[in-house]
What we know:
By secondary structure, this protein is α/β, with parallel strands linked by helices. Helix content is 20%, strand content 29%. It is globular.
Amino acid sequence: MGFCFWVCFISLLNFYSLSFVSSQADASAEGTVFIDGKAPIGRIDDDFICATLDWWPPEKCDYGTCSWGLAGLLNLDLNKNLFLNAVKAFSPLKIRLGGTLQDKVIYDTDDNQLPCTSFVKNTSEMFGFTQGCLPMNRWDDLNSFFQKAGAKVIFGLNALAGRTIASDGSAVGAWNYTNAESFMQYTVDKNYTIHGWELGNELCGSGVGTRVSADQYAADTAALQSIVQKIYQNVDLKPLIITPGGFYDSDWFTEYIDKTNKSLDVVTHHIYNLGPGVDDHLVGKILDPSVLEGVSGTFSGLHNIIKNSTTSAAAWVGEAGGAYNSGHNLVTNAFVFSFWYLDQLGMASKYDTKTYCRQSLVGGNYGLLNTTNFEPNPDYYSALLWHRLMGRNVLSTSFTGTDKIRSYTHCAKQSKGITLLLINLNNSTTVQAKLAFNSTMSLRHKHRSQISHHKHRIHKTTIIKLPQGIDGKIRREEYHLTAKDGNLQSQSMLLNGNILSVNSSGIIPHLEPLHVKSAKPIMVAPLSIVFTHMPDVTVPACKVQP
């Protein structure tokens, strides 16, 4: 096979450790990433990345700032080549259409007897706006764009139709689905493909603005399922039934999931764990590992409810903008937000979340794309790298040496190997990594069309240094993300030291890795993010088909 391994045995832990030795003399810290390669702990959808489009009109303002412009569904310019290219780059991108005002939207189908007018600002109305209307020619235009872009559409239906608001603030009565049914029938008649129909926005638990009881919501979900079965009876591809699209409440979700075990495909919840967008301490929160970890209870809580129930429903994050009320300019649309966003993607995956919808694709101060010119913000590139590198199977991963490193590992999307994501929250320390596996692991060495497999069954901790003979043969791919000029609030991101930007034709740039000899250390610079694709490191968990 042309080479051998130098092996010494240590009788402390039952881990296989691949050690990286650094020749750099500057200040740094060492740490170890422990990867359990025996079996996956979660599985995500292949199209895990999702983004939202909202209904907000230009008059939507927060704290004196109006950040939505023409990004709302009724106003969005669908003819921009850059916008089309940004969506097509994911092939496919899930897009969830919804948000606060979805529960005030009527659909201008033949059954509608009301004038089809846009939202008008009115502070005496719930959510601060009057009822609005979706014209069918606009729905046609939106679907034309989605078809061109190859998007998978999730549409959020108005769940307040037919209800009245009681003195205690709750919404009472059954859902009146007449207008929604007509709209769904129109959609099917036009041969528009809908990946999922979602009922309501933030009406569960304590609700936002108002709330619906779990028992009533379960009955309404059954009604939605019945409508879908009727309308789609002659359609091969059936849409998902998705609800409730609100904030996690253990008691409410437990009751609701128990009562929808035969009618629900996806249970969605929203994440805004950083508080209001007006908060001046958002950057500090984002860089605080205890704040990032604090939301894990939401993921684990919902995961356990689903696991302990008879439902077959999967968990999604249906909307997540981090900081509510449209985010914070130069924070939630800047480089620093990728620390929060990628950590969320990693954490959600660990708890078997199948899809994660970012608020927003465009609009507010938390868009993946700039609200006015559709130029990608840093998180767009973070999302695209995740989508291209992180496969479906999730591996248990932990890091020792510093609490400022966040670590996540998936089976690779583009190979039989693995992809490791390391996030360094420290502002002054470069971290050099060691990898440790507690399972049988293979190194695949390709040379002259031959593939050699070197397997090491683990009985003791084994420190293995890759000898010079294979230094140049086994390589990994690294994607280092940093802020332009070291400014965390920059809206420009560097990939391996090169600025990421679209060209004059609106073409999304290629995301090219560094090819690094595997015997070199994985170096994670201060306040940086590194994706490391190791195609030649294979573990049993990655042989399990999702």
